[in-house]
Amino acid sequence: MSFSGKLHSKLYLIVIFVILSYALDVLPSFSGVDQIRMNVSTVFGQLDDEQKVKNEVSSNTTINSAIDGNNNLIANNGNTTSNSMKFAFSATGNEGMTINHFDCSIDGRPFVTCVSTNTVNVADGTHTFNVRSNDNTGNKDLTPASFTWTVNTINSESSSNTQIGSANGGNKTPTVNGSNTTTPTTSIISA
Question: Tell me: domain 59-151, CATH 2.60.40.10, correct?
């Protein structure tokens, strides 16, 4: 029994693809006897041309401002005594792409669709806000803009003044007078 012509070469190709797919742990797709397709470049970690184009034209997202609930402008890695932070952000699309929408994430949670200006409410501690833009062709910003800040509402409470006054018999007993000053003071008043 001998093979010749098209049938012979097709069988060799099928055998080669089966061996290659087994070695690479990838199954080729067969679309009829004459069509065998296998994207080997993706198997080896290379991107196809369409994905390369998408990565090259991703947009650039910027956080323009971060204003806390006390209406203070907070710098990146700054501190605030407010649990609320309002972010304003924008983006520019590369190669004339139009920005379609934004996605936001707080403290590593999944991204959700958001708009500029976005307000977040958080507990005391350090937090990170990320925002990325998406253009009309589905490209996402590969490097989301990031902003980190620390909330500390515990130290923002007013402290009290302690005053030791004169009492009957000359005993000194402390009395606490509340005030709205930021540093505690201790006074000793003698009789």
Answer: yes
